[in-house]
Amino acid sequence: DAKTTQPPSMDCAEGRAANLPCNHSTISGNEYVYWYRQIHSQGPQYIIHGLKNNETNEMASLIITEDRKSSTLILPHATLRDTAVYYCIVRVSGQGGSEKLVFGKGMKLTVNP
Amino acid sequence: DVKVTQSSRYLVKRTGEKVFLECVQDMDHENMFWYRQDPGLGLRLIYFSYDVKMKEKGDIPEGYSVSREKKERFSLILESASTNQTSMYLCASRTLYEQYFGPGTRLTVT
């Protein structure tokens, strides 16, 4: 079972920031928060991950609350190509062997012109 | 850039046929995975491999087998295809932190 909850969908205007929320109230101390996205008819794509500090890369920023029970993925200037299903996942990182990514239903972000 | 490639984007097979789905990664990753994705069910893990010739069952291994003879290649085999195996099949390989997916193979079994 997915350990995260996300709204089913969200709209955003092109050029504006898209803030994608995720709740993970049962997260364990050694579990990371991961974000992936899946553009239609493609395989999922890794975006970013974090443990407790905020993280930023060339694609997005990840803000994790101090209690780690929720997080927000921020796409600073959304483009039409960011329209996709976004998955928030929690899992233990850095382990060998099995890594079962439980994707859940994700959240459909639609960026409108 | 990490590249995970899958042998076919679209495949149509008949019931009872033996089907091979090939996956190749070019980054020397040890861990490789096969998932299937169905509407409303999300991604489900079929098999994974953490080294050459090593394999472990995922959540839904029934009707499937795998082969990992070389580090870069992980094959999924449907011994006798059935209509309920019509699905999108996704291969992935991973580093310590990131999992990279191939483009997927949409398999239709008629």
Overall body shape of chain A? globular
**Rg value of chain B:** 13 Å
Rg from Cα of chain A: 13 Å
Query: Which structural class should the secondary elements of chain B be placed in?
Result: mainly beta
Low-confidence blocks of residues of chain A: none
Low-confidence stretches of chain B: none
Sheet having the most strands of chain B: 7 strands, mixed
Helix content of chain A: under 10%
Mean pLDDT across residues of chain B: 93
Straight-line N-to-C gap of chain A: 35 Å
Q: Can you describe this structure?
A:
The complex is a heterodimer of chains A (113) and B (110). The N and C termini of chain A lie far apart (35 Å). Chain A has 113 residues and is mainly β. In chain A, 32% of the residues are buried. Chain A contains no helices and nine strands. With 110 residues, chain B is mainly β. Helix content of chain B is 0%, strand content 59%. Chain B is built from no helices and eleven strands. In chain B, strands 2, 4, 5, 6, 9, 10 and 11 form a seven-stranded mixed sheet that branches. In chain B, a hairpin with a 4-residue loop joins β9 (87-94) and β10 (99-101). The interface between A and B is medium-sized, with 23 and 24 residues.
Secondary-structure topology with pairs:
The complex is a heterodimer of chains A (113) and B (110).
Chain A: E1 9-13, E2 18-23, E3 31-38, E4 45-50, E5 55-56, E6 61-64, E7 70-75, E8 84-92, E9 107-112
Parallel strand pairs in A: 1-9
Antiparallel strand pairs in A: 2-7, 3-4, 3-8, 5-6, 6-7, 8-9
Chain B: E1 4-6, E2 10-13, E3 19-25, E4 31-38, E5 42-51, E6 54-57, E7 64-70, E8 73-78, E9 87-94, E10 99-101, E11 105-109
Parallel strand pairs in B: 2-11
Antiparallel strand pairs in B: 1-3, 3-8, 4-5, 4-9, 5-6, 7-8, 9-10, 9-11
